[in-house]
Write a structure and sequence with these properties.
The chain has 10 helices and 16 strands. By secondary structure, the protein is α/β, with parallel strands linked by helices. It folds into 2 domains: 202 residues, ATPase, nucleotide binding domain (Nucleotidyltransferase, domain 5, 2-Layer Sandwich), CATH 3.30.420; 124 residues, ATPase, nucleotide binding domain (Nucleotidyltransferase, domain 5), CATH 3.30.420.40. A hairpin with a 4-residue loop joins strand 11 and strand 12. The two termini are 21 Å apart. The relative contact order is 0.20.
Length: 383
């Protein structure tokens, strides 16, 4: 396997890793530090809402899902950091109650900005030798003091260089303070944080569950939220490139507020098609400008990936996230890129028991809850 010097995360052996064939039912970065229940509730704390999913099996073996989306004030989080813990805690309680979710053992995700991953090449050595040298090796690759992070590693490949056989090792580190902040709001809501993962790879877990990665080729999982667009490029069933774009659906809301002197709520309604200009075939200039800006960032991400050695042309783009429901954004993605575009529904092979969408529709929950569904599908104890 060829080493690539850019972020690659998922989950394996107690850390956040994406190791190739599948990331279905793997553990996250906290797995070796916490107790292990039999099943988990997926909880995605976003900048404008909390999404929760619980997946159980029916008597006939089919998957049954309970899912909910609970809006919360956009100022509750700032750049992925929790700034209003009580509001987030209340949102977690509310979404669990509204969706009828009974479990309290939680898998949650950190924002990509809170996790650092580096793939490094090392001389081939025994597992014991690797365990003894990994902290020293990590000091040159992790831009934090090691005492301030939870660090783990996984061998993801083997190769050779001019000096002999090598192993490719993936280091992953998350700041203890960030993990503590997210775990605290979960605990205050009466839940037990068990697994921490990264949004882009939780989504990959959900997509892989339905065989979405079995066809090989290359695809981009594009999860468009309120303030962030996660891009995860998968090649031959394996994650090879990730990037978080610091913009999302709130950019449309802000542009419409400025253009029409609206409140945030009024602009949100207009954005979703509930007001002037949204029924026209041609979107208004404020919307077109935001769409162009977002697509330029997506395009730069794809171009950066394409410039990497052994990169492949993208065959598919898989859209998810609340912002992907916007007509203008999805249509522009289809028009801009020479790849088939698919809207991902994480519940397509499940029976929906309870859906709580705070006034929305099942399609809104399906778009927003892909990450939470991927978290809920993880099984504790897999290695």
């Amino acid at each position: 396997m060829q080493s690539r010097r850019f972020a690659r995360l998922g989950a394996e052996n107690g850390m956040v890793l994406a190791l190739g064939v599948s990331v279905v039912s793997r553990m996250g970065i906290l797995s070796r530090f916490l107790p292990r229940p039999a099943s988990l509730v997926g909880l995605d704390i976003g900048s404008s809402s909390v999404k929760a999913v619980e997946v159980t099996r029916s008597a006939t073996g089919g998957l049954v899902a309970r899912a909910g989306v609970q809006p919360m004030p956009s100022e509750s989080l700032a750049k992925g950091a929790i700034v209003n813990g009580p509001v987030v805690t209340d949102a977690i309680r509310n979404v669990l109650e509204a969706a009828g979710i009974r479990g309290r053992d939680v898998a949650l995700c950190l924002p990509g900005s809170a996790v650092v991953a580096r793939e490094i090449s090392m001389p081939r050595m025994s597992p014991a030798e690797l365990a003894g040298s990994i902290a020293w090796e990590a000091e040159g690759h992790i831009p934090f003091e090691l005492r301030d992070v939870n660090l783990d590693y996984q061998v993801v490949g083997r190769g050779a260089d001019s000096e002999g056989p090598t192993i490719v090792v993936l280091l992953a580190a998350a700041k203890k303070s960030t993990i503590a902040d997210y775990a605290a709001v979960v605990a205050q809501a009466g839940c037990v944080p068990i697994v921490v993962d990264v949004a882009a790879f939780a989504l990959q877990n959900a997509y892989a569950t339905y065989g979405g990665l079995d066809g090989g080729g290359s695809l981009a999982l594009l999860n468009a939220g309120a303030s962030t667009i996660n891009v995860n490029i998968v090649l031959g069933g394996r994650s090879v490139f990730t990037r978080d774009i610091a913009a999302g659906g709130n950019a449309y809301t802000d542009a419409l507020r400025a253009a029409h002197s609206l409140t945030f709520g009024e602009a949100e309604k207009l954005k979703k098609g509930g007001g002037r200009g949204q029924d026209a075939d041609t979107p208004e200039p404020a919307v077109r400008e935001v769409t162009e800006r977002l697509l330029l960032e997506v395009e730069k991400t794809f171009d950066f990936f394409a410039a990497k050695p052994a990169s492949a042309r993208l065959d598919r783009i898989v859209l998810s996230g609340g912002a992907s429901r916007g007509r203008e954004f999805a249509a522009a993605i289809e028009e801009r890129f020479d790849a088939s575009v698919e809207r991902f529904d994480p519940f397509r092979a499940m029976t929906m028991d309870v859906v709580s969408a705070a006034g929305g529709e099942l399609a809104d929950v399906a778009a927003a809850a892909g990450v939470a569904a991927g978290l809920a599908l993880r099984q504790v104890g897999d290695r």
